[in-house]
Amino acid sequence: MIKVNDRHIDLVTSGEGPDILFVPGSFSTPAAWQSIQKHLPQRYRFLSTSLCGYGETTETRTLHDNSINHEIEILNQITASIQKPVHLVGHSFGGLVCFVAVLIGKLKVKSLTTFEANPITLLEEKNVFRFRKIRKISENFERQYFLGEKDAVKTIIDFWGGRGSFSSMPKVVQEYCRSTGFANVLDWRSALSFKTSSDDFRDWKVPCLIVRGERANHEMIEITDALSKSISNSKISVVSGANHFLISSHPAICANLLANFLQEIDEGKR
Predict the structure, then answer these.
(1) Cα angle: 21, vertex 24, 26; to 5 degrees
(2) How far apart are CA 198 and CA 123, in angstroms?
(3) Which of 111, 167, 260, 264 is deepest in the core (most CB within 10 A)?
(4) Ramachandran region, residue 85 (left: φ > 0; alpha: ψ -120 to 50; beta: rest)
(5) Starting at the edge strand that comes first in sequence, how are the strands of the sheet with 109-115 ordered?
(6) 2-121+197-266: CATH, from 3.30.70.1070, 3.40.50.1820, 3.40.50.300, 3.30.420.40
């Protein structure tokens, strides 16, 4: 963990070599990446963090100030003392944060790998019906949360992972999701406040691997397709049998995809 003024930022490091910064999604901490890291070549230094309101990272957002810049500042602080560009890896909302960080040019990035990243405002130009659907789901979740419904977060987790995803989680994970529900309310507001379109990615230079699960929902499939078509220097991979939570359910396959992609970069093939 690092401390910047009165703010704490989760940071777990291991190994030596080129830096890979792992950014988890909502309801997650550095532990989300442990299974993947066990399957990766040990010639890298792994840095894992948590976003605002999760793990040991201080929540700096409010209902009235929920810009995604709060999340970008976490990555800025972690990489401030790193001289060389980092490999950036993100899942879900963490993947969106990574995309934003590259788009606004605040980080020195050698490559970007995302697992079911969700820059949801891309849907507004691609399929306004699905965009309105996803916005309605977020509004319903927020209303349920503030009404005090115990399992309001189930709406979100089942939306991304499929029906029964929340119920199938270990009880301790369910409870952590419930306890961080307010952070997820702010995650949705942050995600919806960052307006983007396919044109924003036309001049993209960073090598990019975009991964989704075979069982991804329709919204994620459209987002992934839009990203892969908009980013010329990208490749897309689909993990058979996986849903939104593929980094936990299929860690060996995800690690192999990442390792092969990084090797291509190291060999100058991308």
Answers:
(1) 155
(2) 10
(3) 111
(4) beta
(5) 12-14, 45-48, 19-23, 86-91, 109-115, 208-213, 234-239
(6) 3.40.50.1820
The 10s digit of each residue's pLDDT in 180-211 is 999 999 999 999 999 999 899 888 999 999 99
pTM flag (> 0.70): yes
Q: Hey, what's the torsion of the CAs at 18, 36, 113, 7, to 10 degrees?
A: -70
Helix (H) / strand (E) containing 208: strand 208-213
Name 163's Cβ contacts closer than 8 Å, sequence gap at least 6.
Answer: none
Q: Provide the β-strand partners of residue 93.
A: none
Instruction: Find out whether 148 and 137 touch, Cβ atoms under 8 Å.
Output: no
Is-contact 174 81, C-beta < 8 A? no
Domain boundaries of the chain, sorted by first residue: 2-121+197-266
CA 202, CA 232: separation in Å to the nearest integer? 7
CB 133 within 8 A of CB 219: yes
Summarize pLDDT for 6-29 with one digit per residue, the tens.
889 999 999 999 999 999 999 999
More confident residue, 192 or 83: 192
Query: Looking at the chain, how many residues does it have?
Result: 270
| pLDDT bucket at 270, cuts 50 / 70 / 90 | low
Distance CA 216, CA 214 (A): 6
What type of residue is 258?
Answer: L
Dmax (CA) for the chain in angstroms is 54
Angle subtended at Cα 64 by Cα 188 and Cα 139, rounded to the nearest 5 degrees: 35
pLDDT over 90 at 269, yes or no: no
| pLDDT value at 1 more than 80 | no
